[in-house]
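The material for today's practical consists of a large collection of protein records. Backbone structure tokens are a discrete shorthand for how the chain folds in space. An example says more than a description, so a record of this kind follows:
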Amino acid sequence: MTSRSWWGWGSDEAALTAAEVDTVVGRVAALMPDHDFTDHPPPSPDDLDVPRPRVQPPDVLAELISDEVADRLSHARGKAFRDVVRNLEGDVTHVPDLVARPTTEQDIVDILDWCATADIACIPYGGGSSVVGGVEPRFDGPAITLDLEHLNRVLEIDDVSRAARIQAGTLGPHLEDQLRPSGLTLRHFPQSFEFSTLGGWLATRAGGHFATLYTHIDDLTESIRAVTPAGISESRRLPGSGAGPSPDRLFLGSEGTLGVITEAWMRLQERPRHGITVTLGFNDYPSAVQATRMVAQAGLYPSNCRLLDPAEAFLNAGAESPGGVLILAFESADHPVRAWIDRAVEIAVEQGGRVLSRRDREGQGNEGDSSTAWRSSFIRMPYQRDALARRSMIVETFETACTWDGFDALHRAVTAAATDAVQRVCGTGVVTCRFTHVYPDGPAPYYSIYAPGRWGSTLAQWDEIKSAVSEALSANGGTITHHHAVGRDHRPWYDRQRPDPFAAALEAAKEALDPARILNPGVLIQTR
């Protein structure tokens, strides 16, 4: 049994070992030898002056609700860098008054009714892995966090249609464990997989395992059921429909503002039996980008098509390649994939790529290659971030998507804005880029910042960097987020990105479904 960290990522048991911390700090110290790496451990929840709850539940709901300090603190924020830093500093502003854990859909109805009557904000909560302020009660007035952890079952599997009805509070590993006896899989693996839920994926339009084709949870969704203050909405199970605007699209990406997603029918697939991964290096970055675009537009649809720029490849995969590293992978439950991977590699080689490693599903080939090293680092990145945040380092990411014709200009502008901001507020730092997903018409660039901060000022330093890069994204045709959601942190730029008529329609939907405006105030729509 593992215990979730109240202040940082994941579980306490999986945090970096002392040896891992020494390795990570040593690697960063080699780049920033003058930085002060003094450790600032997290405070104990018992030592924090957490305000007392401002509301008390009615007796009929009391057994579903907790007012424990540790419970409230662990539900107060997500897992972004700014969340971790505030926790490390003992900042206890904006803590939910209560944490509710419904066990049935009727419990949710009753809790929402009470909140609407008593004018209490209600924040739906899955795994709490938001990195955009999506689960934080950042407003005045009482708030309750609605944790769906008890709604955690796969209720029904349709083997013929290859779909399953799954409750929204099901964490990724538990979801896959319940599907495994059927031989089927959802195969949606975001970086947060271990600590995020189906409901959270749906509410934030999460990006997952596939770098092409089925990139978002939207693509795997057949039907959604949600409880709103105005009633229950359940769409019909269909493989596709042209009957007006999609009701599922209303709740996909709604981030808990229109209703509480309680379950969904999700499209499944057989577990893959064939797979090959090839890693290629390039001598220059433009050629690597060109190769990636050509693979994305070839109709091959690799499961993995991730381009790491030279700094990303070196820092997180240990690969030295002046033009970056392209990781290509194909998988199938039905047929060998050699023809597809060979054609993708041929395209990349024609653009100047050279094969660094090749590995098949049975693990034959180059063990310890850069793709394996990068994947291992990818899973451990949040824990590494926490260890460095404790030592006054600014380690954070931001992501976007753009069309291929606009990538060069956007990449130049964003890299320049990030570099200028880092140098201005930190003196030095490193900016890296990778493509997490690619489409025939454009990539999804994902940037990482590594910079020395000053303890007590790292939050303000990051906020200044974040504002600068967000302005650059907005000014150069990128989306403010490809798969991290809007939350509260991205609201200013999301408000600019969406068309005004759509904003008015969203506001009208809020008024119709949540007239008391209790659901997740400040996310997507104006605060209460």
Remarks:
- Residues 73 and 231 are 31 Å apart (CA to CA).
- The mean pLDDT is 95.
